[in-house]
Amino acid sequence: MNTAQAGRFPQQVGIDAYGNGGFRFAEMSHKGSLLCLPDGMVGWEVGAVADLTLDSLKAVLDLADRLDVLLIGLGSDISAIDPAIRQAFRDRRVIIEATQTGGAVRTYNVLLAEERAVAAALIAVENAR
Are 49 and 75 within 8 A, CB to CB? Predict the structure, then answer.
């Protein structure tokens, strides 16, 4: 089953693999970027850091009261994110950690296994690192 066709997976789960332009989780594959939220996994229309805006993160902001940490996977490279994004989450007492998608996936899995209040916004990459 491809989650892009189904729209969303109804629970937050760990990510088994990433690369080839998508992610594998819950014995499914998803092509494209992904939001991992407390209420489920959903496709995300962000394909590059330039597309990362407060509007593109609205679904995460709407759940900020249920989060301690937001991991942002920036793709293959690390770059600065808009200070307004950091401030919006800081105002809601959510820590942002922005790094390469691979590092964000690994940290997300660890925090999720520790039952932490975590979300991830992951830009898909072609090559896993």
Answer: yes
CA dihedral 42, 36, 23, 107 (to 10 degrees): 170
Question: CA 120, CA 118: separation in Å to the nearest integer?
Answer: 7
The sign one gets for the Cα dihedral 3, 102, 106, 92 is negative
Could you give all domains of the chain from N- to C-terminal order, each with its CATH number?
3-122 (3.40.1230.10)
Q: What is the pLDDT along the chain (129 residues), one digit of tens a residue?
A: 343 434 689 999 999 999 999 999 999 999 999 999 999 999 999 999 999 999 999 999 999 999 999 999 999 988 999 999 999 999 999 999 999 999 999 999 999 999 999 999 999 999 876
